[in-house]
Design goal:
Layout (H helix, E strand, L loop, with lengths): L1 E5 L6 H21 L7 E6 L5 E2 L5 E2 L3 E2 L10 E4 L7 H8 L2 H15 L3 E5 L2 H7 L7 E2 L6 H7 L4 E2 L5 E4 L2 E4 L4 H13 L1 H10 L16 H4 L2 H11 L8 H7 L4 H12 L3 H19 L4 H4 L8 H16 L1
Parallel strand pairs: 1-2, 1-6, 2-5, 6-7, 7-11, 8-9
Antiparallel strand pairs: 3-4, 10-11
Helix pairs in contact: 1-6, 1-7, 6-7, 12-14
Length: about 325
């Protein structure tokens, strides 16, 4: 998974650096969880190539610009918080030429059906671009009134820290950058997201927007994580979802429902995805043929594996 993080002049230091730190920690932890999980690479992008100063004076090196052809290789583009702490300040920031240029690029990106994510005041950048119109989204608690007034056609949900609507993901207040980054990691592997959260000692944090809204660790489904852990240990074997459910102490029906709720796919599709990950890893790191790899990832023939790889790739590109 290739993730680009927009560096916006005068943006909050913690928003940008938190996203970068969580994603890089996840990539470092990947080998310890399962090196077959797709690699997570992260880069910084901006309107120009010069280092971008944050609100606190940090200079952020830029990997490439909004117009660079490498933008097309990104899977997700993340917009962290703008450097403003009042509604008028946020609106002023949205009108700046550099932010306006980014807004145009985001609109093009959204029109292509590409994944976008934003946190805190960065959510208003998506809303201002019209990307959130007709969608559910969230924002920082102190911006809710201004957000609803300015963008009445957005379904604002202040009961959740992270809201995903199609290919658009938004997160609430400043420390929701952690939740946003962990959520992105969880799309590749809930197990890796859980391990990364534990590594960083991320704990439950009540959202100011509503007392019952909690951070990532309160919403992660341990049953799904347990199933992924069990499945990764049995990828080379004939695998029954019912057996997997029994192994982690639940029913197949419950497992089906919970995996769909968290990942939007079936347990069978999750297993197929993990088998494809491992097969691709073996293709990259060994000289084994598909015929040799197939039984190592639970398929009886190279043709069956090739079909599974094509199916998985098609699903990932949708």
């Amino acid at each position: 998974m290739k993730i680009g993080v927009a560096a916006i002049a005068g943006g909050w230091d913690s928003g940008l650096t938190t996203v970068l730190d969580v994603l890089r920690t996840a990539e470092a932890a990947r080998e310890r969880v399962d090196r077959n999980i797709p690699a997570i690479s992260v880069c910084t992008i901006a309107a120009g190539t010069e280092p971008i100063p944050t609100q606190g004076g940090l200079l952020v090196p830029i990997d490439f610009t909004f117009d660079d052809a490498r933008m097309d290789d990104l899977d997700v583009l993340v917009i962290p918080a703008l450097g403003a702490n009042s509604p008028p300040g946020v609106i002023d920031a949205l009108m700046r030429p550099d932010v306006s240029r980014l807004r145009t690029r985001l609109r093009d990106w959204a029109d292509e059906g590409r994944q976008l994510a934003a946190a805190c005041t960065g959510t208003l950048l998506l809303a201002e671009a019209g990307i959130l119109t007709g969608r559910s989204a969230t924002t920082s608690w102190w911006l809710a009134t201004e957000f609803q007034r300015r963008y009445p056609r957005v379904d604002l949900d202040m009961t959740r820290m992270v809201v995903q609507d199609g290919h658009i993901t938004t997160a609430g207040a400043a420390f929701a950058h952690i939740d946003l980054a962990i959520t992105l990691v969880g799309r590749s592997s809930p197990q890796l997201a859980d391990f990364t959260a534990a590594t960083l000692l991320i704990d439950q944090r009540p959202a100011r927007s509503i007392e019952s809204a909690l951070g990532y660790l309160s919403s992660v489904d341990r049953l799904v994580t347990d199933f992924e852990t069990w499945a990764r240990l049995h990828l080379a074997e004939p695998m029954s979802i019912a057996d997997g459910a029994a192994a982690i102490g639940t029913t197949r029906r419950t497992l089906e429902r919970r995996v769909r709720q968290q990942l939007g796919i079936t347990p069978n599709a999750l297993v197929q995805q993990m088998r494809a990950e491992r097969a691709r890893h073996l293709q990259r790191t060994t000289k084994l043929t598909l015929a040799k790899i197939a039984p190592m990832v639970g398929y009886q023939s190279s043709a069956a594996l090739r079909n599974a790889l094509n199916t998985t790739e098609s699903r990932e590109n949708d």
